[in-house]
Amino acid sequence: MLCLGIESTAHTFGCAVVDEKGRILSDARAVYRAPEGKGIHPREASRHHIEASHGVLKEALSQAGAGMKDIDLVGYSAGPGLGPCLRVGAVVARTVAGYHKKPLVPVNHALGHIELGAALTGASDPLVLLVSGGHTMILAFLEKRWRVFGETLDITIGQLLDQFGRAMGFASPCGGRIEKLASESSGQYLHLPYVVKGNDVSFSGMLTAAVKLASTSKMADVCYSLQETSFAMLAEAVERALSFTGKKEMMIVGGVSANKRLAQMLEMACERQASRFFACPIKYAGDNGAQIAWTAILDYKKTKKAVKIPDAFATQSWRLDTVDVAWR
Amino acid sequence: MQLLKQGAEADIYVTEWHGKKAVSKVRSPKAYRHEALDSAVRRQRTVHEAHLMSAAKAAGVSTPFVHFVDPDNAEILMEFVQGKQAKDALDVKMCMQIGRYAALLHGANIIHGDLTTSNFIVNNRLVLLDFGLSYYSERMEDMAVDVRLIKEVFTSAHVGLRGAFPAFVRGYGSVAGKKKTSQILANVKEIEQRGRYARVE
Ligand SMILES: Nc1ncnc2c1ncn2[C@@H]1O[C@H](COP(=O)(O)OP(=O)(O)O)[C@@H](O)[C@H]1O
Ligand SMILES: [Mg+2]
After folding, report:
1. What pTM was estimated for this model as a whole?
2. ipTM associated with this complex
3. Roughly what angle, to the nearest 10 degrees, separates helices B35-58 and A219-245?
4. Of A133, A154, A191, which is closest to B194 when you measure between CB atoms?
């Protein structure tokens, strides 16, 4: 079984072909870049996706050495995400699946991160930290669904890094630049608000404080302290959730998991709880079509359920903990 | 000293205090935290915990008796409480009692900060532990964060137990009254909408 997955929730328009063993036969992406110091503009991003869609789709098929006739299933990310971006993915999916008469499966984007991460790392029943522009959530699987054991009370870790970076005039996404600057710091720690509430975290006070600090301190030290504080909060929240759930595996997925310092801290937090640490390979940490394709395969193989083409919509705020998972 | 439990944050040892069974709660350094941040966090939580545990008792909530505090070593010596974690014995009646406790704390402007079912011990009474994240506040919003947390716990770890959160709300309401309870619930809703669906703007 070959599945074409279409991802289009935020910055990335991606198409990929995956087989039922989880082999990623192709992974084509086009990423919208906002101007320096600016955030993502949904309409601009969706325009980018519309223009990129044809090329990305073609590339995904040719990389996989497949034509649409070889594809058995089409999956698309149906939320959560930015409305205008999601709609592009849904339209492309409807068109392709409708024209070529393929079953079409809507996939929850967050679920895609988790399932591909699990397939690539071999984690079987992990506590999951999902960290990206749109998510900061601690999840564990219980009674048919991924349940939320912790999350941000205000902005996500991705938003913290991006909004701080943009205030400094960096081009977004800013995580890479901040990580690099932090590594150039001499290790001078500047105090920032450390807010953990149970397994939940709050970053908005830190954002304000860090921006303020930047006008009087060395940029490298501010970036260093921003990472040290925010990542330690996440590590602590994860440790608390591990202790509570007793999970013996922990997996990090999502764009921010590319950060090496975060992975290192989480690994240390897992040690005390005697949990095995798994990190989604950096190459697939960010949004991509393979996540969607693989999750669509898992879903379709188990449930044989597809949506009718006219009913293939996207939902901006489709909560992961409302999705029944039949295959776990 | 014998290790009784590794908590979410601290190590719990069984020891003695003047011939009586006691618990030593030690916040050991966390290797993943920068040293300066780590020692500040551990000290502050130890001091808060000891202080607010006593304050909660005065507010009518059953908590372990504090014998001794050592902020430099982030250690608290307290009464040993016999019983199970509420997490492993939860029923609807207990949820209601948890609600009553939360309202009693909030009535004294104490925010617990980690209102979860592993932080209660049950025997013939219900005893609330773990005040490391507690603080004083008069703000409804902060009280709502407490309520939201236990709601999250009920709807994740205890999804199998039906009526848990409604029972909590009944217990809360019996102490705090209708008006305050519904205000807090409105705040809870607002927080939920903020976090869970946050997207890149
Ligand atoms: N005074 C006590 N008497 C008996 N058991 C205790 C006592 N304090 C803690 N414990 C046990 O240790 C566990 C962890 O303690 P807690 O104070 O919650 O630490 P942490 O902050 O690490 O979660 C509790 O869930 C409980 O089972
Ligand atoms: Mg505890």
Report:
1. 0.94
2. 0.90
3. 50
4. A154
